Amino acid sequence: MKINEGCFRAAYFFLRKTLFSLKNNLKFISIDQKYLKYLHDFCKEVYWQPVGYETKPYLGILVEDKGNEYVIPLSSAKEKHKSWKNVDIDRFLIFENCEKSEKALNGIYTENPDGSLKHIISVIDLKKMIPVKSGLYSEINLNFSPDDSEDMKKYKVLLNIEYSFCIKIIDSVIQKANKPYDKHVSTGKIAKFCCDFKLLEEKSKEYDSKS
Fold this sequence. Notes:
Elements: H1 5-15, E1 20-21, E2 28-31, H2 33-42, E3 58-63, E4 69-76, E5 87-88, E6 91-98, E7 108-111, E8 117-125, E9 130-132, E10 137-139, H3 150-187, H4 197-206
Antiparallel strand pairs: 1-3, 2-3, 2-10, 3-4, 4-8, 4-9, 5-6, 6-8, 7-8
């Protein structure tokens, strides 16, 4: 008896409910720019730009099925994020509460009911997660060094705030990470602003770092 595509997708969805888990422990990683551009050429929803991504932090997540790895990007805060919920179906805001006297130039802030400020630092964007392979990424060092420039020190301060925040919500992040992926696989449809996960998996397997 021939199994129709709908039944196959439903069975796949049922079997794959809890696929994602951390690889060893929570880490921020920087991905090879050539690889990012390669994926971006096939799917424009992949985060990539010609400059400024050399130290782009990613939240590393391991896909246990067949040893595949996926990475969920942290996108820098923008003005549009002021109206976003702290937690939504496919994203999380990373933020810290602070006093108005602590407000920094060029930061993204909203006012809390008590008069303090919510400093939005970045967004964990589940729709933009991508497959990655060993050798195409490196772990970001969050520790401070005497050789760090002032800009690097400020950058690491923010990274450590992000890391501490992520530690507290990582279980929820992993749980939610399954949803956009499973929806894509179970329906065959690509949601708006979402990466084409299956296409990217195919292209990732084909990628040759030496080419």
